[in-house]
Amino acid sequence: MHSRLLLSIALLGLAVVAVAGCGGSSGGSSDQPTAVTAGNEKIEGTLSFWYVPTDPSVGEWWEGFAADFEAKHPGVTIDITRNSVDNYQAKTLAAFSSGDQPDTIAMDTGEYLQKFVRAGYIADISKLADFSYYNPAAVKVLTSPRGQVWGVPEYTFVISLWRNTGLFKKYGVAVPKDWDELLAACDTFNKAGVTPIAFGDGGEDQWTAGHWFSALLYQYAGAGADVAATYGEGGASWEDPEFIEAATRLRELADAGCFPDGFSGLNYSQMSALFQRNEAAMIFTGTWFGAEVAGAEGVTVDVVPAPDGTDAAHSTFEGEGVLAGVSAIVASEEAAEQKPALVKAFLDAFGAATNEYAAENNLLSVSKDPEAGGGSVEADQTQLLQSAKDLVTVTDVALPAQVIDDYYENLQALLAGDQSPEEFGKSMEAAVERERSTLPKQEGAG
User: Fold this and answer.
1) Do 138 and 171 belong together in one domain?
2) Total structural domains within the chain
């Protein structure tokens, strides 16, 4: 699912920029909030909402939520449209560009949301919604440097290190907290004939390497360094020492035999299966993996933070930041201007229901006071989210579409030994320099 999302983002590419002049207002570039405070205005009328279900239960939940909202607010109709993930982004683009957009919509954050923000389609709701319901780090993902907030968090996922606890216990390996301990764990498992880390970056699944690189780059350079270097902000470059350090650590995993033989030819499904067959001790992946491994016979798991790279400036293991994705509910500029009271009531009702929404739909809660459900793994991930100052956006979700292919190809070359870490940085800098004049303006959030 993740690879399809990234591919769709890349295909969407410049399309939103091309239609930006055909509709929408200048909300994406305004210094002032575009929405107005709802105040005591009467709540009435119809509010449309679009979403894609992440689980079969999601549709039922939203129908129940809408019915309850309508019962509490006579005269209000919530018009819900369930969409397919396969055409959601194209349908959304067409709706906004034609002026037939929904009032509110569930949307992935990152560069995809940014395209709609730049086109002026998305409302700044900083003075409209009540953000006290939400995890501040999740709201931070949606907040621009100028204080604009482009939506409320809907749910999130965490990318972390999953351990086969049975194999760790069998071979007497402790939880790796730093890079030396991770490499030592790889050595122990290799000697025992166990694949240390299930991994594959073959075919269209090169994003798996991006998970590792994103986590390491955060540790050395902090949140947002990838975007800053791509745009050359403040002289930032992909050849900066922090990028080379991150690339060096990633290459060390391959050189130390932490990954399975032939990993460049394995895709995500194959690396997942390797872990599920009890043949690998670790896998670095997202919350969705819980559903995949749930039926694996004889495999017991827990979730821990990514080990810290050598001499890294920021600690993932100590919870300073965690690699995570945030889905948001955003409001159209038109809806926020024409029916702010209804938009506010809808968003705030959802804010009050975030724990219920997560618990009933197998999601991680974005609540300020989350209630972990399901089991110990869910509790571990919820704790990671709750304690982190930064929820770090995965690099390939944050970057503009023009440089994604170069990023994937260079990561694969780095891991295959065809590029040194320094050559990786040089190749990426050359790629972003080629495209810099075509890159869309950044709003700094989402």
Assistant:
1) no
2) 2
Are 76 and 37 part of one and the same domain? yes
Residue 20 lies in a domain: yes
Condensed to tens digits (0 to 9), the pLDDT of residues 71-82 reads: 999 999 999 999
Mean per-residue pLDDT, 404-426: 97
Q: 446 pLDDT band (50/70/90 cuts)?
A: low
One domain, residues 171 and 318? yes
Q: What is the 3-state secondary structure (H, E, C) of the chain?
A: CHHHHHHHHHHHCCHHHHHHHHCCCCHHHCCCCCCCCCCCCCCCEEEEEEECCCCHHHHHHHHHHHHHHHHHCCCEEEEEEECCCCCHHHHHHHHHHHCCCCCEEEEECCHHHHHHHHCCCECCCCCCCCHHHECHHHHHHCECCCCCECCEEEEEEEEEEEEEHHHHHHCCCCCCCEHHHHHHHHHHHHHCCCEEEECCCCCCCCHHHHHHHHHHHHHHHCCCHHHHHHHCHHHCCCCCHHHHHHHHHHHHHHHCCCCCCCHHHCCHHHHHHHHHCCCEEEEEEECCHHHHHCCCCCCCEEEECCCECCCCCCCCCCCCEEEEEEEEEEEEHHHHHHCHHHHHHHHHHHHHCHHHHHHHCCCECCECCCCCCCCHHHHHHHHHHHHCCEEECCHHHHCCHHHHHHHHHHHHHHHHCCCCHHHHHHHHHHHHHHHHHHCCCCCCCC
Range of the domain at 20: 2-157+325-379
pLDDT of residue 11: 33
Question: Which pLDDT tens digit goes with each residue over 111-144?
Answer: 889 889 989 999 999 999 999 999 999 999 999 9
Q: Are residues 244 and 264 in the same domain?
A: yes
